[in-house]
Structure formats: structure tokens, C-alpha cells
Amino acid sequence: MSLPNHFELLATDAQARTGRLTTPHGVVRSPAFMPCGTAGAMKGVHWREVRDAGSDIVLGNTYHLMLRPGAERIAALGGLQRFTGWNGPMLTDSGGFQVMSLSDLRKLSENAVTFRSHIDGAKVELSPERSIEVQRLLGSDIAMQLDECVRLPAERADIERAMQLSLRWAERSKRAFEAAPSGTMLFGIVQGGDLPDLRQASARRLADIGFHGYAIGGLAVGEPQAVMLSMIEQTAPCLPSDRPRYLMGVGTPEDILEAVARGIDMFDCVMPTRNGRHGVAFTRFGQINLRNARHADDPRPLGEESPWPAARSYARAYLHHLVKSGETLGAMLLSEINIAYYQQLMQGMRDAIGTGTFEEFRTRTRAGWARGDIDPR
Amino acid sequence: MSLPNHFELLATDAQARTGRLTTPHGVVRSPAFMPCGTAGAMKGVHWREVRDAGSDIVLGNTYHLMLRPGAERIAALGGLQRFTGWNGPMLTDSGGFQVMSLSDLRKLSENAVTFRSHIDGAKVELSPERSIEVQRLLGSDIAMQLDECVRLPAERADIERAMQLSLRWAERSKRAFEAAPSGTMLFGIVQGGDLPDLRQASARRLADIGFHGYAIGGLAVGEPQAVMLSMIEQTAPCLPSDRPRYLMGVGTPEDILEAVARGIDMFDCVMPTRNGRHGVAFTRFGQINLRNARHADDPRPLGEESPWPAARSYARAYLHHLVKSGETLGAMLLSEINIAYYQQLMQGMRDAIGTGTFEEFRTRTRAGWARGDIDPR
What we know:
Two copies of one chain form a homodimer. By secondary structure, chain A is of the alpha/beta class. The first copy, chain A, contains 15 helices and 16 strands. In chain A, the strands form four sheets. An eight-stranded parallel β-sheet of chain A has the order 4-14-13-12-11-10-6-5. In chain A, helix 13 crosses helix 14. The radius of gyration of chain A is 20 Å and the shape is globular. The model of chain A has no long low-confidence stretch (mean pLDDT about 95).
């Protein structure tokens, strides 16, 4: 059964697409980048800065939030938006990916995944139905089905088993979602590792089941970029063209640019804030490691032409000092600068697709990254 | 020789005073609280928030800055204001206090204190003259003389020796300061531990030497509050009434209120940001530990009537969650909330002194703190 379509495709340019996704908490312009507010907070960044930087939507992690402070508690407090003060659209993942990567003693069965909390060791069961229930309690605008993600490289048999289980969980997720109708959305997740035939079978079956949108999961988990892009190329055409396509957990600015060129609409990644905490800035001339001594005496900002004030106004010497000194302000400034750069890139792509100049934008943007940072002074 | 007076006393109310101190980077309203931007950054707080919270002036630590990134480097980059982006008045300490508390292998002589850097083990000599030079390189609006501070309790002989050395260093500091005239200021520092006669002798001698302002040092270093207040009572009358009086390293809101009642004009303390990082909020109803489980389900803000947005808009439940989860945003929000509360207290005192109602303000404020936090919900 088909679900209502909240996505409006505004323009395409070759495979690249720009559109609008309307959620209960507002409109998301696509291609969209979702910064990760993992445990109900953006690490080192105020919500108003997330918004001012151009973010329409953020991601919350079901695994973290269900363990602490708890989904029922957040529901009693009015949902994630009210709880956190982020008043815009929010997508929540299913919890499955973190269960696989963070918890001890996980046990997978047909019914559910059982694991011990990394916080207090409590035994928790997460089924497709419970994941939907938790995401509903959180007040998510876009919920994700529970799936099983296999780290690559892996054997075909393992990849196929996880892909088939994910499809059965997709059906159960949809049934659970439909049992309590709302204005929110549910996305299915394509699995299939690095095997094109499995990817395509997964995508076609999900399209048959019918979701508000479709994610490609299980990529950027250890495989080369070329494999990831090839999987996107072979999967995207099997997904309904009128629905949003979300590439989970990706990635670098280059990953995103190339994925948009292959028809992806949505992304999420911890990279802007994580790299910011490690002293790395994303700029139009590539990544810059502020820890490097070349910046110690440099009065120039990261980017004189950046639209983001902190990228224009703070000297590299100051950012270097903050990073070297372990001052929180260094992580704070670089995290917001990085989110702003990602959103500036997304806006550039949206504009270019809208005017049919995406290929020029892509060439110009790649040339900037390849040029590299300005010479030391 | 007398130094020019940049302090204007606007009103007094019993011993309490309100005034204006004009520095090269702007006017400081007194009583003034100076948040501590230790190593060129306010821990977890953006400079614009420091300013918006009502801070006219901040403190920078000479010890930290001379070791990293280095005074000569900051001078080459245009001074602390330009380097950090904090464009208002800045007071720097002399470096002496941190030498005593943070560095290994310090050796005190008549000429200077020699120590090993806690960062790289380098051997560094800090004389009164070098301290003035460093503070000038930093571009400080208010420089402090190098002094020796004795932790209490201590023997009379030790207290007296340190007090006399500090006086000799005061003279040398002034000579060094006057050798290169500028629009900036130099404050002398009263020592004398918990011994009234030594405190008074120190204050009178400093007044004879003549400074732009006078600090009371060596308090809040282990003695009971009553001893600290008694020392202020017995020292303040020995200081020139037309010059600003600065109580170093103090303190809790109650310490500050009581010190203002005894004629103090300026304060600095790491408490708002340090306690914020530890999950403690300062409010008109006293200190609130957000780590406490009583807040876990409480949708109410810290203070519905607070003039500071973050104190009004975030639920206690959210702040509790951030603190428990170790999210940087918790420390960021509580630090700015605490600076704002301190500045709100200072503004309340300034207004009350100006209208001759300080005693009522003091009684009302103490009653609020004594009342304690609202009941759990």
C-alpha cells in the first residue's frame, strides 16, 4: 500500500535532484544535510547556531535516547523538539546501527536484537515494533525501519541473510507504523552490502512494500569510495523517483557531492562536529588541520569570503591556540564552522541544480578542494 | 607619585560604592564582576555570550598566556583583544598566583620567581619587570603587580616576609610600568594574610607608592568567610577612597554581596564557569545541582523570571540529561547561565547603590538564596 507523498521534486539536473520535503515541524530543502544531535544535543554547538548555519533538519539517535533519558520520559516532556529546544524537523534512526557498534552482548534473532546498554548494562530488547514505538514517543518527523547493517568486507551469505532479515523487518515496521496513523513519515532501508544484485532486489522489494522515503544503508562502512558510488548508481534507479532518497551516515563533502550527482537527496554524518573537536576545519579549499604549527602566527581567518562569521573573523593563530590548549571554545568554533560549510555546500548544490548548472558547480567545487589551503604566512 | 585617576565614583550607600572605570577598551561599571578567560578563552562560552550576559570586562591569566601561545606572539598578532575577538576591557593578573599553584620546581628570590612550565617543563623566570612587560605585550587594560600570595593558615613570619617582598615588588612594578607610559592602568596588591596590622601596613604603603587602583590579594585561599570579610573591613578604609578596589579571586555570590557591602568594587572568579562544567547553576534561589535526579522529569526552567534566555527556556529535565550524559552543551548552557546570573547580581547591586537601597537589596537577595530552590515536581 502506498503512503502519502510529502516530497516535491522541484528540479533535476542529470541525476541530481532538488526538492522540498514537508514535515510536521517544517520544510526540508533537498539535497539536505542533517547534523547529528546524537543524544539530544549537537556536540559543542548551540541549537540556534545549527539553525543559523542553514540546517533545516537534524538527526537524533534512538539508541542513545532510549537508554538515556528514555523514550517514555521524552514523550512525557512533550517530545524531542520540546525537550531539546530544537524546534525544527527531526529524523531518528532505528537504533539498530548503534546496537551493532556500541553495545556488548548483542544477540540477533528473527524477532529482535537483544543487547546490554553501554551505560548501565541493562538488558534491552529492540524489535522493529519497539523501534517504531520509541521513535513515535520521541516525536520524530521521519522514522527509520529497524535493519541489520553488515560491516564490509563480508561474505555473500552474510550480506544476503541480513538483507532478507531487513526486508522482513521493513514489513513489520510498516505495519507497526500504520497501526497509529500520524503526519510523520517512515523510511525503508536498502541493504545488500557491495553486491549490486542484492542491492537492487532490496530496493525493488522496499518499493513494493511502499514507504514515504528510501534510505541506502550499510555503505561508508569500510568499503572504498568507488564501491559506495557504484552501489548508489546501481540502487538509485530502482527506487521510486518521486520519493526522497537518503544515504545514511555519509560523509565527507566529496562523498556528498558525488552522491548528489547520483540522485541522493539526504545525508547525515557526525563528521562536521567530530572533526571539529579534533581541530579540523572543512573549507572550500579542503580540510585544514588547525593543530598544525603552520597556523601558530597566522592572523588570517579560515576563509575571508565565508558567509559564516566565525570562519571570517577568528584568526587561524587563535584557533590553533585553542586547539593546542584543549580549550572547549576551539571545538565549539570549529564544529559550527564545519556545519556551516556543509550547509553552504548543500545550498550551492540546490542553487546549481535549480539553474541547471550542477556540473559546473561540481567541477568548480572539486577544483577548490584540489587547490588546497592558502600558503603559510 | 600619583597616577591619573580613571575611576569615577557615582554614588555610595553606607560602605557600598558604584562607579565607572574608563579603560582604553571601554567603560567598566562597578561593582564589576570579571569572568575568567584563563588561556584566552572563556571555557565553554562564546565571547558574544559573555558580553550579552552583561560583562564589561574579563580577566586573562598572564601565566597561561605567557607559556602558550606566548606574550610576544600575542603582541605580534595585535594584542589579546584582537587575538581573541573579545573587544572590551581586559585585566591581566601578574602570573604570580598561578606560578605558586600550578608549576613545579618554583624558586623564589628577591629578584624573581623561577619555575618550570607545566606544559613543556621549560625553565621560566618571572620578575616584577618581566610581568609588567608581558602584560604590556598582551595589551592589558589593567595590569597587576607581581606579588607573593601565602596560603592560609600560615605563620606570622611567613606572612610578613611575603607582604614585605610584595611591597618591594610593587615599587619595582610601578617603576617598570612608568618607564613606558600608556593609557593603561596598574594596580597594587595588598597582602598580609589574616593579620589586620600587616594588611593595614601593606595598604598604607601601597597608597603611598600610588597606583591606579588597589587589589586585596591572598584572601579566599582557605580561611573562613568571616576572616575574609573582617580583613576587608580593616583594609578598605586604608585605601584611597577615590580609587577602585579589587578583591582578587572572589567568589560566591554571597562573598561578592558581602564584599560590596564593605566597599569593594571589582571581582573575578572561575566559579561561574567551573561550577557550570560540574552541573551547578547559580540562581536567585541559590545553587542548584542539575545532576540531582529530582530534575530528571521536571519540565520547568531554572528560572521563569530570569532575564537570561537559556535560564528561562531550557527544561531542568533537559539540563539534567545533558549533565548526566556529559554533553558539552550542558556545560556551555550552565556556564553562560551562571555568568548571566553573576552579572544580574552586579547590576542589581549597582542599581540599588545608585538609589540608596542597597541594604534592602542585600536583605532581599539573601532571603532568596536562603529560601532555596523550588520544590521538586
